[in-house]
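User: I'm putting together notes for a lab meeting next week and I want to include a structural view of one of the chains we've been expressing. I don't have a solved structure, so I'd like a prediction I can at least talk through. The sequence is below, exactly as it appears in our construct file.
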Amino acid sequence: MYLCFLFLHKTLKLNQLKTFFYYTFLASALIFTTSCENEEDLNETNTPIAINEGAFRAKYCATQEYYLKMAAQYPEIAKEQERIDAMAKQYASKSAKKSDEEIVIPVIVHILYNTPEQNIKWSQVRSQIDALNRDFNKENEDLSKVPNVYKDRVADVGIRFELERITRTKTDVVQWRNNLFDITLPEKGGKRISDPTKYLNIYVGNFSPDFAGAALSPSGRITYPERDAVLVNLTHFGTEGTAIEEYRKGRTAAHEIGHWLNLIHLTGLNSFKGCERNGGDGISDTPKQSIDYLGSITYPDAVSCNTRDMVMNFMQAVFDESMFMFTNGQKDRMRSTFEPGGPRATFK
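Assistant: Thanks for the context. Below is the predicted structure for the 348-residue chain, given as structure tokens.
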């Protein structure tokens, strides 16, 4: 599997982008492991951890490239995606008032560790769940930074996340690199997911240093139900502990759960087509953009497709401090997945 590298195809101003690095990878040999695992009752038992914060700064999401590879290999995935997208459009066009009933999603966090330092503290897991609940329910303090032009688009998505349990699995895999979703496969040194029709499975592990997170697109579940999960690098998870400074608001998980609920990047599935050919993200209240932004971006410095880009949206790839909103259109698209016949209907 290839990682989804978010390359900028035009040069940005220096004040728009902090230093970031691009990496290429050699294929890794498959490592078979024996796993020692246990489920805990949410008690804190781990010691603090130090992390090298100079390791990397850029944020790469593997979700969309992973989807494109799957859809090319399995036509049924592309067909299912068309069905889900049609449901989303129908839901968004409803003239009747849509339900604002709160949706509660039970979460199981799977921690895969090779060293004691990677076996993150309970409080770090708790901080991530709290961050998700703030960001999905319009409770984050930095909403005050939303530009006036977008204030009426800010959404209270109405989704609550409840931490069901944590599992901890000792693995011989030193670092999860090319085949990222192997972390869900016991035969590859991973941990099997819990029932994905009842739980959101979030995996935290020591991934490649240029990788932030990934999620299985909802259409992918029909072929790969055993991989229906969200992956987050331990350096991008939660608001403390192993999370490095640029990603200490827990927003990599918010971004990837957006993918898990059928959102895509604001540049669309392919950001290299330019403004005229770029299909965007299929949502009416997110301006079309042709640039994938990285680092720390300040509105209104970012402009493409003749509009000020919504750089503060959770489906961007900027640092956590620069993203702080979902739109009402994104809310509709996410909530449509819980409708009868939708890919996440079993959670409602």
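A couple of points you could mention at the meeting. The first strand starts at residue 36 and ends at 40. Residues 50 and 242 are 7 Å apart (CA to CA).

User: Perfect, that's what I needed.
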